[in-house]
Amino acid sequence: MLIKSIRLALLCIFINLAFSSGAQSITIPGWIRLPADSVLQKTLISSLNAFLAQKEKPNKDNTYVLKDALPETSALLDEMKGMEQNEVLKDDNYYKSYLTNIIELDADNFIVQLSYIGINHTTPILRASFTLMAKKVGDVFNFYSPLKQNTLTWKAKKFGNLTCYYKTDFDPDKAKAYQKMVYFYDKKLNIPDGPIDFYYCSSFTEVLHLEGVEYKAAYNGQKNNSLSSYENNSNLIVNGEIDNGFDPHDLFHDRLAIVMKNANRPVNEGCAYLYGGSWGYSWETVLAKLKKYAADNPNADWLNLYISTANYEDGDKPMKVAYALNALIVQKIEREQGFGKVMELLGCGPRQKGDDNYFAALKKITGIDKDNFNAKMRELIDDSKTK
């Protein structure tokens, strides 16, 4: 309680002491110790504002990112995108950026910390806090994630194109399994081979800290997760999964996002079910549960279940009818026509009410439409095999 009270008090001070300076996009509290040199101060703050002004662009296009640190900074920028927005209130500028600390390492290098804070009546609400490294390059400052500085004492071991970074030890078998799964997905998706940097962390809290995310409200209570980026054919994974493993289901989503940003959600999930299972269950187990549901519900209306996004298993590990049916459809398409046609279905567009775009693409590729969907899905389920 004491820590929370102190944090609240400090945030209130931010609001009471803060001032805005002209065209600056970041608010600077009056007590912040800026560089004594006024020219250096102006250069640092204007560069920071320019960096923040470009953070919604593709990360590689942000001209204030230190290019040598693009992969790790890309992962950090992904976490900073949209921080001003309050989706509930539909306010795109609800949270304001506040400079919270500047530490001068030398005249050309700084540590910069900032927070995104909104005000609910008189109560400050902290959405996120970030730490950036700043380096003077020519007449401006470039910014980058502190990941490499935070892991200077870590060890490294290479397996082909995979470099594993770790503090004391790690399981090489898990690293090789990850590498094998990446290769499996990338071959389907036509992603060229490239270097992979894989950081083994003890928890997601450590992942966030290493990357420069000191706090993010969206991650409250999350113990296990990972951050990643893909830039210039280079992969970065900062892994905080349980026992430093990886989820093959989530890995499919990550690899697909490299080549397709707005894939149809149910088809995307269907591929992830088929190739990576779900909730730690193998595809064979996921399919067995669907077959049991089908046997228990012989008159199931699969079309309605699909469109309504119904579950065929509830609980803390729910499984959705639309996703499992798409796994069977993807399996059929790939077997008969190749993965290129699966990509065509994935690319039918974001999910729409009624799924008309999906069914138009499905009919073109397979001949399955809304009229014959129930019969075709029952046939696919009955003909499917489990180990």
Structural account:
- The chain has 387 residues and is an alpha+beta fold.
- It has 3 domains: 2-145, Nuclear Transport Factor 2, Chain: A, CATH 3.10.450; 150-259, no CATH class; 265-383, no CATH class.
- It is built from 14 helices and 14 strands.
- The strands form 4 sheets. Strands 3, 4, 5, 6 and 10 form a 5-stranded antiparallel beta sheet that branches.
- A hairpin with a 2-residue loop joins strand 3 (96-106) and strand 4.
- Helix 7 (248-259) packs across helix 8 (265-276).
- The longest helix has 18 residues, at 172-189.
- The chain starts with a helix and ends with a helix.
CATH architecture of the largest domain: Roll
Q: Evaluate the radius of gyration.
A: 24 Å
Instruction: Write down the CATH class of the largest domain.
Output: Alpha Beta
What is the helix fraction of residues, given as a range?
40-55%
Secondary-structure element pattern, one letter each: HEEHHEEEEHEEHEHEEEHHHHEEHHHH
Average pLDDT, rounded to a whole number, is 92
What is the number of E strands?
A: 14
> What does the overall shape look like?
elongated
Whole-number tally of structural domains: 3
Q: So how many helices?
A: 14
The biggest sheet, with number of strands, parallel, antiparallel or mixed sense and barrel status, is: 5 strands, antiparallel
Structural class: alpha+beta
> And the CATH topology of the largest domain?
Nuclear Transport Factor 2, Chain: A
The span between the termini is 53 Å
Unreliable runs: 1-24
Strand content: 15-25%
